[in-house]
Amino acid sequence: MAKGVLVDIPKCIGCESCSVACKLWNELEWDEQEKNKTAIDRAKEPNNGLWPEEWTSINRYDLEKDSESVARYVKTQCMHCEDPACVSSCFSKAFQKLPEGPVIYDQSLCVGCRYCMMACPFDVLRYEWKKAIPGVRKCQMCATRVANNQETACTSVCPTGAIIFGDREELLAEAKKRIKENGYVDRVFGEKEAGGTSWLYISDTPFEQMRFRTDITSKPLPSYTEGYMKATPFVGVGWAAILAGLYVYNNKGKEPLD
Amino acid sequence: MASKVGRVKSLSRRSFLKFVGGASLVGVTLNLTGCGKPITPDKAIGGNGWMPTQYNAPGNWPTSVRGRVPIDPENPAIVRDDQKCILCGQCIEVCEKIQSVFGNYELPIKKEFVCVNCGQCIQWCPSGAISERDDVNRVFKALADPNVTVVVQTAPATRIGLGEEFGMPVGTNVQGKQVAALRKLGFDVVFDTNFTADLTIMEEGTELVKRVTGELHHPIPQMTSCCPGWVKFVEYFYPELIPNLSSAKSPQQMEGALIKTYFAEKKEVDPKKIFSVAIMPCTAKKFECQRPEMNSASKELNDSNVSPDVDVVLTTRELARMIKRSGIDFASLPEEEYDKLMGTGTGAGVIFGTTGGVMEAAVRSAYYLITGQQPPAALWNLTPVRGMQGVKEAAVNIPGVGDVKVAVISGLANARKVMDQMKAGHAPWAFMEIMACPGGCEYGGGQPRASSPPSDEDRNRRAASLYNIDAKAKLRNSHDNPEIKQIYADFLTAPMSEKAEELLHTHYVSRADDFIPKKSEENKLY
């Protein structure tokens, strides 16, 4: 059964255990500059605090709610689309979606074209520009942990239950229950966005104010091109056959040089 | 160009090899690009690291502790180095179970991270990720400025902690060496907070007597206010009990206010050019000195250019760092004396550094304030309020008043239990001493980290050292301190006089609006 994670934004207290767990489990390097940034700093940056060595980050937004000023913490990472655009755009199959949910990346297959980065609707992919043999980096949803029936590193350390791991269908039901009980915004971000994602967000403050891409399509992104891209092999082989035929036709009856 | 059609008529060996070679290349390329490879999770990048065992259980099993406490980047007292954090969860353990702060609010949080700045998380952090906000450089800068008079005060408990940073046994009394080290570092004047501890007893004791006699319309029991962590705790969780808090400032803030007024006047120093430093066993003191109310000198002198009463608070650990950085051989330093004027403390002042000490000191002087006679020797060894028990009670017989019931509490979870009782109407005490840290200041968030995790064994050794100083002291009652008599005669006139109120007393603010209080016991954070 496909797994997922539910992020209950109002339950986050901003302790950033999750991003430290990500660093520990994935052995990501610490960058002095990134380390000294606060959640407020990251919320002002265009890339949501995601870097090649920062696969997840906490962004703090100071908002108005019921004419009271409140702070909300939003965890950012790969959304793990149900039908990922990065996977469909990758011609070398370096990106793959596992049946358990994680969208994983195998660097040994990557040719470095960065089509995936262009394709991603949530802008979570980062390229290792500073490396001699660069790759693309993003959250892997702890694929090996999930395969071993363990929860992801970040959810395992969350002290408040703001991020919980489970079966996506169950989490979706839980999300809808919480929306009703707590008077949240009536939207599970990730239920339909980009055709649905493994990560689901619920919030009591508008998603637009926390830099969520709320204008995104609910159709899976690969479905826009699937119709005609499916014909690619036939067009290729067919076009080659036509050209070969024309060649033979044009040279019919001509004598070879020698 | 001529056509090549018909050129190859038969299959030569060369063309065969060409064909096989080409096919192999295509095959290798296809293979390399992953065509036909099964999808396996172990191909993913990352995932080879380490996490504490509690997080590696299959499924979503509950664990005893998860994650860590949130720390505001703007926290004036406490900082954390994420790179050193191993998510062991000890900070949450102490914050929630021992101090009852974390988890005692509803989610969502409003804006502020509820934190009383006590710093116990520092003492419990096994990897040293959490530490005090380092203000050492600000002090070095002031010391280097020849136009500034740098005045320093040292808390009762630093003298029995500092030695541990230099390899001495737990609880070693290094009072004289500490003074010598401070002079060597370049501090112009070295005062003892024990002096204002005695002054606190005079002010707080007078206030207590006034409350009991009904002269002051404030509720009983009176609660101590020397612990900034405890004060903030009341402001957060029990704002309705703020009137029970003594209006007397903490010894640190009294000393700070007097340094920029009394000392400046006596020694004819420009208060604007005084830089006031406090060496404390405490991180919450860093918060306290930044409170907007702690600006009495500026108000008293009517000069907005006078900086806050205490400019910088350094923890015991930071002082040790300064001494080490300056290359001072601490062990070989001579024993030196504090400067006069505000450098004399009594045995009653020094035991402020441990749980029960304020109470014992207060009882000695309350006896004197009520009866006009010296307290009996039994009050110099008030055993029921000594020791590491979280909640201690005693009844003291004072002639003319009868049995006065008192309570001594250390550790905020213990305080919470008693406060809940008080709210329910059970408060048979006249006076209560409450310290945020278990054991009191001697094991405060700013004290040296012991070689072992926080334990009552170490707390008892440090406390024993303080009681030993008291036992050997020539003067053991706050009201006998000659400098206290002098300051009342020369400057303050009397306890709770108008001037004393202005400089030595303060008010508190409710912080109940900063968060949503917990609705019920079941509503735990997790």
UniProtKB/TrEMBL annotation, chain A:
One annotated GO molecular function: 4 iron, 4 sulfur cluster binding
Binding site for [4Fe-4S] cluster 2: 22, 139, 142, 154
Positions of [4Fe-4S] cluster 4 binding: 90, 110, 113, 116
InterPro entries: 4Fe4S_Fe-S-bd (IPR017896), 4Fe4S_Fe_S_CS (IPR017900), FDH_Electron_Transfer_Unit (IPR051555), Formate_DH_Fe-S_su (IPR014603)
GO CC, any one term: cell envelope
Subcellular location, record wording: Cell envelope
Cofactor(s) needed for function: [4Fe-4S] cluster
Any Pfam family hit: Fer4_11
Amino acids binding [4Fe-4S] cluster 1: 12, 15, 18, 158
Entry binding sites for [4Fe-4S] cluster 3: 78, 81, 86, 120
Alphabetic keyword roster: 4Fe-4S, Iron, Iron-sulfur, Metal-binding, Repeat
UniProt keyword 4Fe-4S, yes or no: yes
GO BP: cellular respiration; formate oxidation
Gene3D superfamilies to which the protein is assigned, alphabetical: 3.30.70.20
Textual note on the cofactor: Binds 4 [4Fe-4S] clusters per subunit.
Xref: CDD domains: HybA_like
Domain 4Fe-4S ferredoxin-type: 3-33, 101-130
PANTHER family: FORMATE DEHYDROGENASE, NITRATE-INDUCIBLE, IRON-SULFUR SUBUNIT, IRON-SULFUR PROTEIN
Name of this chain's protein: 4Fe-4S dicluster domain-containing protein
Biological source species: Desulfosporosinus lacus DSM 15449
TrEMBL record, chain B:
Domain of life of the source: Bacteria
Residues of the 4Fe-4S ferredoxin-type domain: 76-95, 105-135
PROSITE patterns (UniProt xref): 4FE4S_FER_1, 4FE4S_FER_2
Record's keyword terms, sorted: Iron, Iron-sulfur, Metal-binding
Keyword Iron-sulfur attached: yes
One Pfam assignment: Fe_hyd_SSU
InterPro entries per record: 4Fe4S_Fe-S-bd, 4Fe4S_Fe_S_CS, Cytosolic_Fe-S_CAF, Fe_hydrogenase, Fe_hydrogenase_lsu_C, Fe_hydrogenase_ssu, Fe_hydrogenase_ssu_sf, Fe_hydrogenase_subset
GO molecular function per UniProt: ferredoxin hydrogenase activity; iron ion binding; iron-sulfur cluster binding
Signal peptide range: none
Protein name: [FeFe] hydrogenase, group A
The organism of origin for this protein: Desulfosporosinus lacus DSM 15449
